[in-house]
Amino acid sequence: MGVGALRFLGPKRMAFVLCVAICLLGRVPVYANIGGYMQVASATTSHLWTMATDLEEPVADLVTLSVYGGTARVLALAGPGVYKADAPITATVIASHKHWVLTISGETPVLEVEGQGYGEEPLSISLEDISLEITRMNGTIQIVDLAKTVRLMPQAASEEFKISVRARTHWETIAGDYRGSIVFTVSPTQ
Amino acid sequence: MKRVPIFWIMMVLVLSVSGMAVAASGDVNKPISLTSELLVSVGKWAEVSVGQDETIGGSMPASTGFVIEDDMLAVSLTRPGDVGLAFTKVKVKSNTDVSVSVTPPEYLADEDGNRAGNALKWFISFDKKDRTATSYIVRAKHPNTRHLYFYAKWDSGDNWWELQATEPNKPYKGTAVIVVQAKN
Which residues of chain B does A19 touch, with a Cβ-Cβ cutoff of 8 Å? Predict the structure, then answer.
């Protein structure tokens, strides 16, 4: 079927269709069928998609990282306490081997201030007050704060991580919207 | 030519799902990264205590604020010309700028409904001399403690007799309300 489709669409369009399939299905390693190299990159803000289709390059050691869930929104409306994001983020790594590590780091959420604000210093929520509850496919749960980079070694070649974000607020936490980010990085291991 | 519609259908799909998920793939010898936005919305919050140690906290929709009723300010006047001054502490802390105001009762009356006469001059204020000091601002992250005063005087003028003596345990009473409200 793959060969038929390749003949029908041609290599570039086939690659394009496969990009879309990765976007939609995320965890299906369809790129292995085309005997080529392909890269799909995206910026969360602009959703800029680029694609390379050099069909001569081999596919060895290809790894895919997918992040589902978009923005982690935490509503901390009822006073000081710990609040959970409305929906979890799912990070999926697809690979044919276990020579990778997933690291999760954070960029400090900073208060968006209108007008003069509250002084020179930008107000923020400490990364120590942002915690992640990470659930792996085998059911193990790990709770960590974002002050230190989290390193997740693979238990299988391909893995899915369900991540619930929590934020702790104090009475001194000025009311308003704080924006930061969570960065997922897959790196090779020796 | 039959392939063209398929191509455009896939284009439409790409555009429609771009907000749902992000994916990156590549040679494992180079790190690949994706970023999720983190948004923490912190509501407006204040804690208020009036009197001793009891504290009341609440979230504050900017339009309504919240109201507390607590404590008692009592003065005793025994003869014309007497002045009484009672006070209590009002402690406020908040994560946003708030206004604190006191609304005095419209009148003082005993439990049978008999109102105090014109010979009783009184006010409730955050200043023991200035009856108009009925509100102030507390800045975010700056806890504030002020006194709330109840001043009463039995006027010794010609109309002193208009203040009817109260029955035991039936003083003239009223309820002042302190309101804490987000400024914006």
Answer: 14
